[in-house]
Design goal:
Elements lengths: L4 H12 L4 E3 L18 E3 L4 H14 L3 E4 L16 E4 L6 E5 L4 E5 L4 H9 L3 E2 L12 H7 L6 H4 L2 H4 E7 L5 E5 L11 H5 L8 E8 L1 E2 L3 E9 L1 H12 L7 E5 L1 H7 L5 E9 L1 H17 L3 E6 H15 L8 E6 L5 H12 L3 E6 L4 E6 L4 H13 L3 E6 L2 H6 L10 H11 L15
Amino acid sequence: MIQQTEAIAQTLEPIIGTSGISHAQDDTLWQSAVTPETKIDCIASPNTQEELGQVVACAYRNKWQILPTGNGSKLGWGGVAKNIDLVVSTARLNRLVEHAVGDLTVTAEAGMKFGDLQAILAKEGQFLALDPAYPQHATLGGIVATADAGSWRQRYGGVRDMLLGLSFVRFDGEIAKAGGRVVKNVAGYDLMKLFTGSYGTLGIISQVTFRVYPIPDASQTVVLMGTADNIAQAAKTLLGSALTPTAIDVLSSGLVTRLGIGEGLGLVTRFQSVEASVKEQSARLLEVGQHLGLKGSSYGGNDESNLWQKLGEQMQGSATNGGISCKIGVLPTAAIATLTLVDSLASGDAIAFIHAGSGLGVLRWDNPDGEMVGRVRSHCQSHSGFLTVLEASVAFKQQFDVWGYSGNALDLMRKIKQQFDPEGIFSPHRFVGEI
């Protein structure tokens, strides 16, 4: 590992200038992603894709190991990197490249913030159908690298379904491209899917192309609350019906309480379409809840926006306060049992929600106990699922297996890592199996 970090800055200055180099002490977000003994004095922020390629090529020649980041909102997610010499940020790669309004596609540099892109798209009556954590701070590249889709997965799918093309910088500094700017791509090796959820271990994403959608005319959210059995029946009825919600989330009773919307488990369903359809579908779901003895209410306008914003804020938080957040997944049929287990173990310290259609969700723990988190992981794995620790203190991550991977694809993952990053310069030891 290079100890003379000033030498790194001096080497990079001719490439990106003094404005592209900042002192790491002024931005300590990177500390949540590396071992405590790691000392980094320099963060490189290239202004163009070409500069980014030159920075990576320089790191490759000098055998520097890189921690890639965008705006840092999800830098603490995943495993703890080791032997890092340099943080490379794409925050200044934030330009709109092309918005093909008629083709419903948009291309932007990876450092553009999600909220900024949504504002641009909204001017043309369109939006990117993702609902990531920290939407005002998260960058497009970071969203792809962490596969952070959110509740709209029910209607639109995940990040992989939105992503049409990308450019990335290889280990040797060369810029490679995959996919294109059209909705239909030729058959072949799908690098977009490979890079989605790769946590910066295969290369640095520099540009992305997404499919976008027209903004719906109307939106309304129905909330049902009650016992576990009745919420389970309501979710089953909803998923088997002809209704077309854009989001269906099942909430733990602890989360329902913190939102201040009632008691018991919750089923939060969002309808977005033409106004008549939204009203009809909302009314039908409220009838289902009434027949099952569930308490129901509907939210529209600012009340609806505030509800979803508050839900996101409750599930997001910094690891500096001692809490942790986890991504969980189970068979959809096991969602209610999983949330019930969380409520019974946590004594109010944990909140969680699960997307009813996919079985994916988020668990937030205020006072983490490794043994209890392990019990929830065992439960998830017994229902064909997983528990991955996203945000937590470095000390917790060093004591607890972040990924908990028990599959048989580690050898394949290592071969892919070797192919894309033979010198291991990108986020070493950060991924599954310390890849």
